[in-house]
TrEMBL record:
Known pathway: Carbohydrate metabolism; tricarboxylic acid cycle; oxaloacetate from (S)-malate (quinone route): step 1/1
Domain of life of the source: Bacteria
Catalysis performed (reactions): (S)-malate + a quinone = a quinol + oxaloacetate
SUPFAM superfamilies: FAD/NAD(P)-binding domain
Gene this chain is encoded by: mqo
The family this protein is said to belong to: Belongs to the MQO family.
Protein name, per record: Probable malate:quinone oxidoreductase
Keywords: FAD, Flavoprotein, Oxidoreductase, Tricarboxylic acid cycle
Pfam short name (any one): Mqo
Annotated source species: Oceaniferula flava
Co-factor(s): FAD
GO molecular function, one term: (S)-2-hydroxyglutarate dehydrogenase activity
UniProt-listed HAMAP family: MQO
GO biological process: tricarboxylic acid cycle
Keyword match Flavoprotein: yes
């Protein structure tokens, strides 16, 4: 047996074991748990951390590069973050929040790169311009107003606008080739956008964590139950699916970052804060092009406007992707429906998640979102030609023979109680934490991974409030924006952003 094979076997053996007691238990082997694990280890290296993942390896579900769009969400191109108000104004509040959160992620990744914890940044992040693209006079007017509002803020000062077809063609020719000359179109562009391989990022973070004596990763381990202990902590029952062995792990703090599986686990915890939450799963598919001649003509992530009734995660976009050093084009997503909460989940996931506490919110959401139901039915009935016709709204000369269909990951949108409506369907992510901070679960979807560091900092604030003063200096070192108001402090923002971009090479 070779030395490398022996090391590999040792790694596999190590992943079959769990701690009996840990200071921190992280459920899920995706970018969220990995990020929180690295943050906590950097803040307190003495913490014993146990990570459990249901699949054979980490980053197999939502963090996998083929299960998400790979967009570094910074609100540069996503029109659903900039709502047009009834008075004609454009609200950029959400865009500012998301951009700031993404800057925080970049700062942390830059720190980890400087420390040698992450390797070559090009393995997980690459500069790709972000563009918005619209058709029709009304939409052109909206995009112009959006540009004027956003470009006035220092977060978006690099944004460009054009309603000239020749300029659009210079930015990315696929959008205009074969398009009628009389059609009203417009686009914005920000060259500092990014494409991110969250799978590669997660693998590097987990590789670092596994190298620490105080941290263990157990794969092929499914959480069967969570129960409170008399001292206020948690006892977690896990099953090693490879060996058919049940084990128990005790921990005073548990984080549930298991993607679509987070809701069922939150329900198992039985904390009052988790009552009333439900989930609505939406699957996605993308058209993928590997033809080098076509790929070479498009260097951007181009987002359009969502169809009526479509969830925000279904905003159509034509993207440059960089996965394992290879460039491809991706278009979609095309929505579908499956009752599974994960690609590897069960057909019983949705029905088994319905409880007395969330029945009214879920029924209310069903009643109030008939347009979404109609949209999903229509999407499920699409043919290959239908999908190519949709692509041609972006790329008029697209031909079916150059594209193939890939199934992406499952996303579980949040359903929660609402006093007026009974229940609402919420997009984005939300932390649900126990009042005592002993357990926190992350629900929802996009722009989750892009904002993972900011979201995990919020977990620290909610669950470790008594430690924040002690950790403040280290947090500021790792994330310089932690102690700055980047929305208001223009000079600090520019300096911090430049430093992170320089380290990451973007």
């Amino acid at each position: 047996m070779s030395h490398d094979q022996a090391l590999k076997n040792n790694d596999v053996d190590a992943r079959r074991e769990t701690m009996e007691e840990a200071d921190v238990l992280l459920i899920g082997g995706g970018v969220m748990s990995a990020t929180l694990g690295v943050l906590l280890h950097q803040l307190d290296p003495t913490l014993n951390i146990q990570i459990v993942e249901a699949l054979a390896d980490v980053a197999r579900e939502s963090s996998n590069p083929w299960n998400n769009a790979g967009t570094g969400h910074a609100a540069l191109c996503e029109l659903n973050y900039t709502k047009e108000l009834e008075n004609g104004d454009v609200d950029i509040t959400k865009a500012l929040e998301i951009n700031e959160a993404f800057q925080v992620s970049k700062q942390f990744w830059a720190y980890l790169t400087e420390q040698g914890i992450l390797g070559d940044p090009k393995e997980f992040i690459n500069a790709v311009p972000h563009m918005s693209f619209v058709r029709g006079k009304k939409n052109v007017g909206y995009l112009r107003k959006r540009f004027e509002k956003m470009q006035a803020h220092h977060f978006f000062q690099d944004m460009e606008f054009t309603d000239d077809a020749e300029t659009v063609s210079e930015w990315t020719p696929l959008l205009t080739q074969g398009r009628p000359a009389h059609e009203a179109i417009a686009a914005t562009r920000v060259n500092s956008g990014t494409d991110i391989n969250f799978g590669a990022l997660t693998e590097q973070l987990v590789s670092y964590l596994e190298a620490q004596d105080s941290i263990k990763l157990a794969t092929n381990h499914i959480v069967k139950d969570l129960k409170r202990t008399k001292d206020g902590g948690w006892q977690i029952k896990v099953r090693n699916m490879e060996r058919g062995i049940n084990r128990k792990i005790k921990a005073p703090f548990v984080f549930v970052g298991a993607g679509g599986a987070s809701l069922p686990l939150l329900q198992k915890s039985d904390i009052p804060e988790g009552k009333g939450f439900g989930g609505f799963p939406v699957s996605g598919q993308f058209l993928v092009c590997d033809n080098p001649e076509i790929v070479a003509k498009h260097e951007a992530k181009v987002y359009g406007k969502a169809a009526v009734g479509a969830p925000p995660m279904s905003v159509p976009h034509l993207d440059t992707r960089v996965i394992d050093g290879k460039k491809t084009l991706l278009f979609g997503p095309f929505a579908g429906f499956s009752p599974k909460f994960l690609k590897s989940g069960s057909l019983l996931d949705l029905p088994s998640s319905v409880k007395i506490s969330n029945l009214i919110p879920m029924l209310a959401v069903g009643k109030d979102n008939l347009d979404l139901t109609k949209y999903l039915i229509e999407q499920c009935m699409l043919t290959d030609e239908d999908r190519i016709d949709t692509l041609r709204e972006f790329f008029p000369e697209a031909e079916l023979e150059h594209w193939h269909l890939e199934t992406a990951g499952q996303r579980v949108q949040i359903i929660k109680k609402d006093e007026k409506k009974g229940g609402v369907l919420q997009f984005g992510t939300e932390i649900v934490a126990a009042e005592d901070g002993s357990i926190a679960a992350l629900l929802g979807a996009s722009p989750g991974a892009s904002c993972s560091v900011a979201v995990m900092l919020d977990v620290l604030k909610q669950c470790f409030p008594d430690k924040l003063d002690q950790w403040a200096d280290k947090l500021t070192t790792m994330v310089p924006g932690f102690s700055k108001d980047m929305k208001q402090d223009i000079e600090a923002y520019r300096e911090i952003r430049k430093q992170a971009n320089d380290v990451l090479g973007i």
